[in-house]
Amino acid sequence: MATRKLLLLPGDGIGPEAMAEVKKLIEMMNADFNAGFETEEGLVGGCAYDAHGQSISDADMDRAMAADAVLFGAVGGPKWDGVPYEVRPEAGLLRLRKEMELFANLRPAICYPALAASSSLKPEVVEGLDILILRELTGGVYFGEPKEITDLGNGQKRGIDTQIYDTYEIERIAGVAFELARTRSNRVCSMEKHNVMKSGVLWKEVVTNTHKAKYSDVELTHMLADAGGMQLVRWPKQFDVIVTDNLFGDMLSDVAAMLTGSLGMLPSASLGAPDEKTGSRKALYEPVHGSAPDIAGQGIANPIAMIASFAMCLRYSFNMVEEADRLEKAIASVLDDGLRTKDLMSDGMTEVGTTAMGDAIVARYKALA
Ligand code: NAD
User: How far is residue 172's CA from residue 176's CA, in Å, rounded to a whole number?
Assistant: First the structure.
């Protein structure tokens, strides 16, 4: 039996509450389906700072590098607002992304039929929505140098950020987009602003060349990122995979997120390059939401974003496609039955807490097997 090594980093606030529900799934899959998951647990964020003055220790960083996949909860909270900048809770997540070289951020926006009415858009616009936003995560304007505020000496200051993309960075994210599209509806829309940005001109050129060289079976379209934002809200179902840079991806994925109803529903994956020998990728899976200090400890957090992140882990790190499909079906099915955590609650539905929602999904997964 294959051993599948997972590092669990629950973090702060509702992170551990949501992770507890994934642990139940892992235990069930090991016991009933011989899945062979081996888990270790570490500290990240504020709890890591409390334990050893760092947002993630070198030892936990080593465990993350050695694991087949990392499952991450959430970090942060008012308790750590005053800690030094370099060791603030979020620094732990940034260190993981940087040292694991996680350049590809996958954010699916799926609208479960049972939740179509919770979106701010009309149900017919979002019902059955299943799109994937692929954001470049380690380059672009968030990292480019110079990045500074200079004093111009005349009472004025100048703030500078620099957008830089090299060919290889665009090629590798485009490659991930085309490969993902092949496992879905085989369509990629690349978004940039080549009308006003040189990096956009290069982005479009490299995506086009990568497509021509290796992926001409996939349908490729291009759209200006501002028009893309508009189209995402007008008729999101026209898209399959959207690939874009770090800055536009940050915004467009948040727009897409809100199409689906609640922050508590949104999973994400961050992937690195495939290892030359084994072909496996470093990977980290996390819900899009934060540590929600306003509801932490009350047992009411929605665990679905964390559980759906685990489904992405099954799909992308372990190629357990059938199991991932089944887990996503189990989520949809308990929602169809009317079970809702507080954030999703509406008239006529049954309100349940974090644990009851997790238990229902575990039971439904077994029933669907
Ligand atoms: P948040 O996502 O934690 O919460 C925003 C709102 O959504 C809150 O009202 C919260 O109760 C609700 N919410 C979020 N997830 C939910 C869930 N699973 N179930 C039910 N309701 C949910 O964002 P915030 O309030 O801006 O930030 C809180 C803390 O989290 C801050 O310290 C912030 O820095 C941190 N944060 C961490 C991450 C991360 O770990 N990746 C991401 C975003 C924010």
Answer: 6
Ligand 1 centroid to residue 336 C-alpha, Å: 26
The reply to whether 99 and 111 lie within a common domain is: no
Decide whether any atom of ligand 1 lies within 6 Å of the 12 Cβ. no
For residue 136, give both structure tokens.
């470049």
Helix axes 321-336, 304-316, angle to 10 degrees: 160
> What's the predicted TM-score (pTM) here?
0.92
Q: Answer yes or no: do 128 and 277 share one domain.
A: no
- Residue with CA closest to ligand 1 atom 16: 264
CA of 43 to the centre of ligand 1 (A): 18
| Domain final residue pick, 265, 292, 312 | 265
Active-site position among 130, 226, 325, 359: 226
Using one digit for the tens of pLDDT, what is the confidence trace for 202-233? 999 999 999 999 999 999 999 999 999 999 99
Q: Supply the range of the domain harboring residue 151.
A: 107-265
Indicate which residue of 254, 329, 359, 366 is catalytic.
Answer: 254
